[in-house]
Amino acid sequence: MSKKRLLAAIMFTDIEGYTSLMQHDEKEAVLIRERHRSAFEMTTEAFNGEIIQYFGDGTLSIFKSTVEAVDCAIELQKAFLEDPKIPVRIGIHVGDIIQTKDDIIGDAVNVASRIESCAVSGSILISDKVHDQIRSHKHIKAQFLDAYEFKNVDEAMPLFAISNDGLVVPKREDIKGKLKEKKAVSTKSFLKKKSSLLWLALLIALVVFILNIKSITVTTNSSDKDLSIAVLPFDNLSTDKDAEFFRDGITEDILTQLSKLKDLHVISRTSVMQYKGTKKTIPEIAKELGVSYILEGSIRKYGTDIRISAQLIDASSDEHIWAENYDKTLSNIFSIQTEVSKEIVDALQINLSFDEQQGLARIPTQNIEAYKLFLEGRKEADRRSKESIAKSITLYREAIALDPNYAEAYAEIANSIYLETYYSRRDPNEASELANEYLDKAEKINDKVSRIYSVKGLILNIEGKREEAVEAFEKAIKLSPNDVTARHQYSTFFYYTRKYEEQLKHAKIAYTLDPLSFATANSYATALAFNHKYEESEQVMKRVVELGDDNNAFVINRSYFRLYLDQRKYKQAIKPLKELVKKEPVFNRFLGFCYAKTGDTISAYKTIDAIRNHNRKNEISQQLAVVYAGLKKRDSVLYYLDTIRNKQTKTIRREVPEFFDFLIGDPDFTNILKSHSIEYNYKDLKDKG
Question: Is 226 in contact with 285 (CB distance < 8 Å)?
């Protein structure tokens, strides 16, 4: 007898309640079976399936393509759900079979039969292996049910229901069929059966990963394809209430590891997290993020047992390059991002220094509860409110209490403490002192954490310690070239130090790393304007508006006013300035200046009155000088600037080259500038004039 071995998708169908129907109405039962077979034959042929046999009210068929098998099942159920309805249940599994002339045999056939027995009429149940092969096909929707133990099957198996419109998704309590127990397998039982295979499965997965990725990736020296990647939020297929934190944590930790690779462009978590639950296709996402590769996956958590599925996709062709499952327990989950990162390094032939190798090998914590608190804290900090930041500090402290060597938690608590100077009016000096205490502790534990130095750079920059800030930012970027926070803050540093070309360099990198972030987009638009790239800045500002909302209106108007003012488009600047004045009367000086430059002297003088009414006397001198500069009232400008000098304040900053250009060469004006020790600004003024 001839036989052949092959890998196939196996489908069983069955008419629910057929035996009972035959007993009560034999004629109706025969008609239903004939209609069932007719639809089954036509649809199976249309999707390139092969009918193996009919048995009473059921069928067995196989498909070379798992996707075609599921598509066929969906079409069948659509037909059977039309009036008069036929109550059909369908089960699909994929595996190795032996095919003879009239039959197929193998464990996979037995499993497919068990899956079909668990279905209810109108539903399609599939195994996790089937789900792994269809999950990137967006036209097919699936919902995780639970893991079940079948009769005569050694291992518990996760089941999914196809959830396309119109199909029935069984409730967990309705899953019966050929099970060892009438309820889902317990977490403890499932864990015991899987634990002995965990490390073997991981090792095999990593070998497959490197072999596959090498087949499509050449060295960084010769690759024509841009080495850029986005790690999308993993799908949460778990019912555990805390699984969402682990889903985000795995996604972000893989990002953190990959961000250490200088030859790989990695999109930040702020941008990728916006694709949670998205229905967009891989090519659409890749185009929006500007990347060549997408890594996506899923997490299924059963108590302390966890399965992670991941696949790498070539975004240009939407083709799967590699896919694998990782079975882990929570106690050793931390190793997965390190192992995968090392394999990527080898596959891309990236040469790492000893320090970089040590950095990749280090696991932040082995305490799963501390890790969970850390993830919760980071989520609260990202909400950016007085209450959420305070809560993040509490959570980080709890994490540190569980693991006193958790360097990343020390760095994050320092960041949250300093954020309170913005959101809770915390005293900056007190916040700086306490934040630095935590940063010093973090640095003693592990001086390879980029976050330590990006936070240090932020504080040092605000405190005016420029050289120390440069050192901190440079170290942060060296440790993690894809650290968007370090890039963004370093760009801000160069704005304050008037090194606008360097500001633009780092603002552009931050924007490419985080293209869906309002903050980085706005920073990039501002940097373009300061470098006189006005057309590009206006184009990016359109993106800023798209990313913003009502809460960002103030920042958007401020950026537009600066953009127009730099181009001396005073008429266009008036509209955003009017909105800014409603929130902050201090912008009246710019509004009055623009009114004056457009010839509206009446409105200019009205802003002078507004300045006098809304500000304390010791704060109005330079503001009035700016408006009088627009009116070209030399004596008034010099009077109010001289008042500033007499009060021994130094508030003449970038406004010098922007507003007082008509006084270039005036000896009295020159003396005032020099008295404020701003010779650099005076040179800038002469160059611009």
Answer: no
Higher pLDDT among residues 157 and 606, named by residue: 606
Q: Which of 262, 264, 260, 253 is nearest to 272 (CA)?
A: 253
Q: Is the pLDDT of residue 619 over 80?
A: no
- Residue 112's contacts (CB-CB under 8 Å, 6 or more residues apart) are 10, 11, 12, 91, 92, 93, 95, 127
The whole-angstrom separation of Cα 516 and Cα 527 is: 17
Residues in the chain: 689
Question: Among the residues of 446-533, which ranges form H helices?
Answer: 450-462, 466-479, 484-496, 500-513, 518-530
> What is the distance between the alpha carbons of residues 500 and 580, in angstroms, rounded to a whole number?
25
- The SS3 of residue 27 is helix
- Rg (alpha carbons) of the chain, rounded to whole number: 33
Average pLDDT over residues 647-659: 51
Give the pair of three-digit tokens for residue 147. Answer: 């893991």
What's the chain's average pLDDT?
81
Q: Compute the C-alpha angle 193/197/198, nearest 5°.
A: 105
Amino acid 453 reads Y
State the angle between helix axes of 667-675 and 634-646 in degrees (0 to 180), rounded to the nearest 10: 20
565 within 8 A of 573, measured Cβ to Cβ: yes
Cα distance between residue 669 and residue 641, in whole Å: 9
Question: Tell me, what's the pLDDT at 339?
Answer: 65
Whole-number Å distance between alpha carbons of 275 and 287: 13
Distance CA 600, CA 129 (A): 73
